[in-house]
Amino acid sequence: MFEDGAIINELLIERLNYIIYVVLLLIGLHAMISKQNLIKKLIGMSIFQTAIILFYVSIAVKDNATIPIYKTEHDPHGDAAKAAVLDSNRSGEETKAFYAPVMLKPEETQQYSNPLPHVLMLTAIVVGVATLGLALALCLRIQQGYGTVEEDELLVKIERSDARYSQSPLAKAKNRRRTQSRNTRKPRTSVKSTKSIGKSAKSLESRDSTKTKKTTSKSNLSQPKKKPASTSRKPRSSSSKVEGSKPTTPKAPAKKASEKTRAPKKKGAE
Amino acid sequence: MKWISLIPVVGVGVLLLFAAQDFPEWGDPQSPASQSPVASHFINNTGVDTEVPNMVTAVLADYRGFDTMFETVVVFIAGIAVLAILKGSGGRRRGTRRAYEVEAEPDIIVTHTVRLMVPVIQIFAFYVLAHGHVSPGGGFQGGVVMGASFILVALAWDLDHALVRMSLPRCMAIAAAGIIIYAGIGFLSMFLGGEFLDYAELEKVLPVSREMARYHAMLGVEIGVGFTVTSIMFALYANLSTEGRLKGGL
What we know:
heterodimer, A: about 270 residues, mainly alpha, Helix Hairpins, 2 domains, 14 helices, elongated, B: about 250 residues, 10 helices, about 0% strand, globular
């Protein structure tokens, strides 16, 4: 089974380092792809990085070779060099010429493993630490802003806040036109109330116009410090109406309810 | 849904294992990486060019000095970015304590142990940094050990205790000073007639040979790297553990 040439021998005995690196790399890759938690994704990234580092360092290994630091006999400042200096002093030769280290012979080169992968991986580790710190800071900020680092929840929340705040100019113009035409058709009942909407959570609730008056009055109570009503309120609330009316996931009503309950608390914290 | 991700993962794995058969065997001295002229050049010429016994340090700080300089800049920028992201973001929750935040007196056993250990750690950090030419070590490693000593202080007492010794403005100043030391050595060698980071030209200001000038300039840039890494490591910890508030923390 383990004779020369067999594929299991090839892979398991002589190339075990590659197996390990591939397995580690796959663990990291799988974590990065399939995990929803951003921190777990980061852990996967670190494992991935470790696999690459292992790959490079294992390439640097040479049989019967030592670490890439000169042995005493090749050390430019070691005992051998000192002895050479002493010798040269004794024999009256010029010290400097004798003291200068000589280039290694090819067979001596084989005694040292390859320094280059070590240097490259040193760079990779340091930059990896820096990027990991940065990524963790971003995760913290995401957690502060959205209250979660789970990717699916994040996507829902980001989509919702996108619908509220940052529409593309094109969509905004379209919505404005639509609301204008609607306004001409029948006077809006909630023009006054939408003006006083300070926070986005409410604009979600103003989706059903029957409720609008009630909720806004409630929010006025819960919000002592009113934000200056801007002119862009009207299209914004209507845009949320448009966005909200599209078919959403079955979770949406529950989310809406939770949003409703959370909204006053948020305002109080601010 | 989750299992769909296994398809690309297994595909990549099969490809990599397939390719692994063509890779050199473990420890093969005839492997392309070991036979490459670059590697043999570094092994053969490091002693002649720089008189540094540790080839990794020589390659890192001298032959690839430009790379290492901007690597240090990357670390510095990462520290600044973490500060910029987290600065003031945690103020919203000031006053209220989280569930995991407990008010606890520093433990007497821990603090006394740390009091004994920190000087040793810092001495060891200096050793790792300064001895990086001759033994495994260098600026990054020494800097990380040094930063760990400050983090240990912050863990044993609290963050305020460590911030008294290493406040965040001071951190950033030290980090910037490290890069200035590195780049300054590069510019100095440039103004002395060589190229940027061509340390051999420093022989005109140092009373040593060209080779030893490179040796000592490498120590200089390692010290610069050590400054930056020390302070950025601590700044990262201080910011990440307190969400940028720099108060309380772990």
